[in-house]
Structure formats: structure tokens, C-alpha cells
Amino acid sequence: VLSSFQETSNIMKERGTHIGVNTIRKIAQRFSLRAQATKVAEPHLCNESVAGYRVVVSTDGGRVRIRKNKRGPKTSKGRSRYSTEWKEPKLLAIYAIGPDGRMDRNFHPFIDGTMKGPDAVFDLIEYYLSNLDITKATNILFIADGARWIWNRVGSLMKSLGIEQSQYHELVDFYHAVEHLSKVADLRKGWNKKERKRWIKKHRRLLLKGGVDQVIEAIREICRGRHSKKLSREKNYFFRNRYRMRYDTLKEISFPIGSGAIESAVRRVINLRFKGASIYWLEQTVEAMIKLRAFNKAGRWEVLKKLAFSSSLDSFKLSIKFLFPIIRNFNGIITRHLNFCLHHIEEVRVLALDE
pLDDT tens, 28-46? Predict the structure, then answer.
């Protein structure tokens, strides 16, 4: 269980292989880069299908502190000054469920992510779903929290994939909705703790039974005569997502009503490696490491290797138009150290990726 590239380098040294921290970082970046490039050169590499499966799709964001060097004079020790800011990596999860609503263990999930924003993660979702013959799935559920960046894109995603509206469901995570009920109760002045708890319990039960309209009416009653922006925001949250709160309907057909799978993925892929006191990352390093960790945690390391070492790259099928910005962004030739990667990537993976 290693927490840094330096620790990985030390263990490798003990095993008789001398690899520096910067070399390990470059291996990770270039290995991930080749996998991403292959998706463009050979977009139909996946030979799996979700035909006949019930499929759940979800996405969410984490938090990582990104380091950016400042211009100007260096410190007295000759080091560059830098600033740090929080950025949100976006993660996706695609998995199949059985008749009982539990994850189908015979189908390894797809987990991936990016630092490039909402449009980029939805491009990834579209890539995977189109490769998996998503139109042949029995039913599809898209579940997430109430973030607008998600729901503003789901409709156009399904339309571009050719999925009929009757074939998929949209659902806001039930437990996030209950959190918003708690916020409403906390904003109601004059209630004691017992009254707030009773109100939350009652309307939580209503949500589960499909009574979202009654819940909205109860919140409107609390808002009546009050000019609280916070209360109005909570009311609008339920009104905006009312058609995504059919928990009774989804429970009847044994679909999950919580987005625990994607939240667990965010914790395992991002939080356990990238978050911590005084930990800052270069954005390109996070971009590369997210993909490596995501495939590793999903049990799809061999798929990533297939992408990274695809012959389509070595036979120059990749267009110069796509290759040039990759080379420019990573400041070098992407094939350098490739033979070295082939010999050591498995050992580096075990040491550097596992939390």
C-alpha cells in the first residue's frame, strides 16, 4: 500500500530495479496517453456488448488541488513559486445489474474519468455506450445527484446514441434528495430538533412512495410569506427534478435508487490517491493517473494494456492532426521509454496504483 511515486521508486530499488520518480511519472503519463490516442485511431476496440442486460450509467465529480507555477523570480532556494486551486475531476461508471437489482459480477464495470470538464466526460460516456451496443440493452438507468451539469446533457446524449425515451430512466439519487429535505427543515425557523426530524421522516417516506408533488407542496407551504433565497433554491431543486424522483416506480422493477457505485468509485480512484494534506498535482499527471487507477479498480487492466500497446499507433494510422497537439502537450516524443514500459509497467502498476 504505497502513497507516492517516491515510495514506489524505493520499493523498486529494493527489488533490484532502479527507476526514478520522474521516470515513473513519465511512464504513467505516456502509457495513459497511448491508450487515449488509440481510442481515436481504433474507436471500436471493445468487443463486449450489453445486449440483454439492464444497465446503470452514472457520473460524479471529486476534488483535487492543482499546482500551477507562477511567473517571476524564484525563491531563495531556486524553486518556482506556485499557486494551488481546487479542480473537479469527473468520473463515470457503467455497470450491469441482475434481476434483484444488484451489480452483475459477471460483467466488469467500466470506470473512467477526466480533468477536462463536463463535455469531456460525456464524450467518454458516449464512447463506451456506443461501443457496448447500448441500444440493445433491456433497460437503462441514468442515476446521479442533482447537479445541472449532468442533467442538462443526458437528454442530448441519449438522443445521439439513438436511445428511445421509453428505453431509459433518469433518477436523482434518493439520499441526495433526503439531504435537501434536511436543508429545508434546517431553514424552517421556530422548529425544534424533534419537529425537524419528524418533518424529514414524513416527507422522506412520501418521496419513497412517489409523492414528490406532495413534498413540493409542503415546501411551498414553508416558503409562503418568507423571502429566503435558500428556501427558494431548495424548492426549485425538487420542482426541477420532480420527474427524476419516481423512486416507487424504479424500486418496483428492482433498479437502484442510490448512486453509491459512482461515489465509491470517486473515493477509490480519486480520493485515496489524490487528496490529502499538502498534496498538489500537475493537471497532466492527474489526467493520466485517473485512467490508470480507474481501469485497475474496475478489473480492466488488460483492456488498458490492449489500448496502450495497440498496433494502430505503431503503424502510423493516427493522423498528424491529432498527434501533434499530444506531442506538444507532453513536451516530447511519446514512444520514448516504451520498451522500458513494457518490461516494468506491471510492477509499477502494483506499487503505484493500489491504494
Answer: 888 888 888 777 666 665 6
Do 258 and 174 touch, CB atoms closer than 8 A? yes
The x, y and z cell numbers of residue 323, run together, are: 498527434
pLDDT score of 346 more than 60: no
- Pick from 141, 157, 164: which is nearest to 56 by CA? 141
**pLDDT given for residue 321 in this prediction:** 44
Instruction: Of 167, 171, 143, 155, give the one whose Cα is nearest residue 241.
Output: 171
Residue 74 φ/ψ, nearest 5 degrees: -85, 175
Rounded Cα distance, 158 and 241, in Å:
18
Contact in structure between 308 and 34 (CB atoms under 8 Å): yes
Cell numbers representing residue 76 in the block: 531563495
Q: What is the pTM of this model?
A: 0.84
User: What's the full length of the chain, in residues?
Assistant: 355
DSSP string over 273-318: HH-STT--B-HHHHHHHHHHHHHHHTT-HHHHHHHHT-HHHHTT-S
Hey, what's the cell of 91? 468520473
The predicted-structure confidence for 94-144, as pLDDT tens digits, reads as follows 999 999 999 999 899 999 999 999 999 999 999 999 999 999 999 999 999
Rounded Cα distance between 124 and 262, Å, is 15
* CA pair distance 132, 286, nearest whole angstrom: 27
Q: Considering only CA atoms, which of 117, 94, 100 is closest in space to residue 261? A: 94
Q: Are 168 and 140 in contact (CB under 8 A)?
A: yes
Q: What pLDDT does residue 225 have?
A: 76
d(CA 94, CA 108): 9
Q: b/e string for 267-300 if b means 16 or more Cβ within 10 A?
A: ebbbebbbeeeeeebeebbbbbbbbbbbbbbbeb
